[in-house]
Every structure is written in C-alpha cells, then in structure tokens.
Amino acid sequence: MKKVFVLVVLFVLPLVAYLFFASGVNNFGRLPVLTEQVPNLSDIDENVRVDDKITILGFLGNQIALRKGNAFNLNQKIYKRFSDFKDFQVVMVVPKGYQKEAESLKKELGKLSEVDKWRFAYGSEEEIKSFYKGLKTNLELGEDLSTPYVFIIDKERNLRGRKDDEDEGVKYGFNTTSVAELNNKMEDDVKIILAEYRLALKKNNADRSK
C-alpha cells in the first residue's frame, strides 16, 4: 500500500495538477467575442482598414479638444506599451470636416511617442452613427459623436471584451477617462489577445514544418 501511495503522489497527482492548470491557462488565454463581424470601417473611409489588424477603436467626435485628455491617457497607458507589435493600431473615428483638429492632436501626441500607428477614419454623421450601432454594445454614442470608451477589435473584425467583469458583468469597452481602468483591465486584455495570436502563429508555423 505504501508503494502504491508513493506512486500516486509521485506520478498521478502531478499529472492531475498539470491537466488542471493547463485547462485554466487555455480558458484564460482567450478574450471573449462579444460582437461578431462588426461593420467594415473601410466602408466609411477607404484609407483605413481593420481587417488583419488588432485595433483599438475610439470615437473622438466633433469636439476633439474635449477628448484630448482621453487620447493622451490611451497613448501613454496602452499605445506606447503595445505599438511595437506589427499588427497593432489605434483608430479614431472623426466626423468629416475635423481633419485639421485630428492632425493637430496627432502632432501633440507625437511629442510624447512615435504615432505612426495612430490613424483617423473620417465619416459623415450618419455613417458614424450607423457604424457605431453595428458594434452592438450597451454604451451610448454622445450627441457630439464621441465616447470616452474604446473597443478592442480583432483581426476578424470581432469586438472582444469581458463576459464576467467584476464591476460591469459584460464589458464591451474601456473608459479612457480612468487611468486605473486602462492599467488594471485594458492592459491585461490587450496582452491576452496578443498572446492568443502569437500562440496561433506558433502553431501554424509548427504545423507547416511537419
């Protein structure tokens, strides 16, 4: 009996523990899809694509100066940390006619970091409202066509978020007014989706080499 007990401790329990933690990592390693196939942003602005990109999507509206602080928070806490990843980008939707204000904001951001992966998509009021509706979130777009929230869009144009957030339950977006939320929640979720694609890439490369 002692030998059997020793064998169980040495071999069976470690295997059970491994399977348990492996299962946990696998579940943790995917960020839930909340909205499948959001509208194609290139339908609004042909110069901006989200396909095959991991995109942080935001809406600056027609009072860009009022959202400047939100943009700086996002730039410092999220963009600077992940901008080295090849397929990562930030896209801000802006009403047509506000190109000058958007480019001015980009220049200000450029004083703090490189901004080659900050992009702006310009559309009409109706186009922006229609596109935002297609995200199918529980968050409202302001009358000025802005929101402090930004959204994670994956390479297949799926909106990713949380289904069991401790504060909100289903969490579609991240409030750029809150540095704590960017640090404690959004950063973690961006890490997860980037890791997810890295693992998929490694698997594809391994399969090709067989």
Question: What name is given to the CATH topology?
Answer: Glutaredoxin
The beta-strand count equals 9
CATH superfamily: Glutaredoxin
Class by SSE composition:
alpha+beta
The DSSP helix count reads 5
- Assign the CATH architecture: 3-Layer(aba) Sandwich
CATH class: Alpha Beta
Largest sheet features: 7 strands, mixed
Low-confidence stretches: 15-28
How far apart the termini lie comes to 45 Å
Shape assignment: globular
Q: Measured on Cα atoms, how large is the radius of gyration?
A: 21 Å
Share in β-strands: 15-25%
Count of domain modules: 1
Binned, the helix content reads 40-55%
Taken in chain order, the helices and strands follow as: HEEHEHEHEEEEEH
In quaternary terms, these chains amount to single chain
Q: Taking all residues together, what is the mean pLDDT? A: 87
InterPro entries: Thioredoxin-like_sf
Question: What attributes characterize this protein structure?
Answer:
210 residues, alpha+beta, Glutaredoxin, 7-stranded mixed sheet, 44% helix
Structural commentary:
The chain has 210 residues and is of the alpha+beta class. The protein is 44% helix and 20% strand. It has one domain (33-208): 3-Layer(aba) Sandwich (Glutaredoxin). Mean pLDDT is 87; it is low at 15-28. A hairpin with a 5-residue loop joins strand 5 and strand 6. The protein has helices spanning 2-28, 68-82, 99-110, 125-133, 179-208, and strands at 33-35, 54-60, 88-95, 118-123, 146-153, 159-160, 162-165, 169-171, 174-175. The strands form two sheets. Strands 1, 2, 3, 4, 5, 6 and 9 form a seven-stranded mixed sheet that branches. It has a two-stranded antiparallel ribbon with strand order 7-8. The chain starts with a helix and ends with a helix. The protein is built from five helices and nine strands.
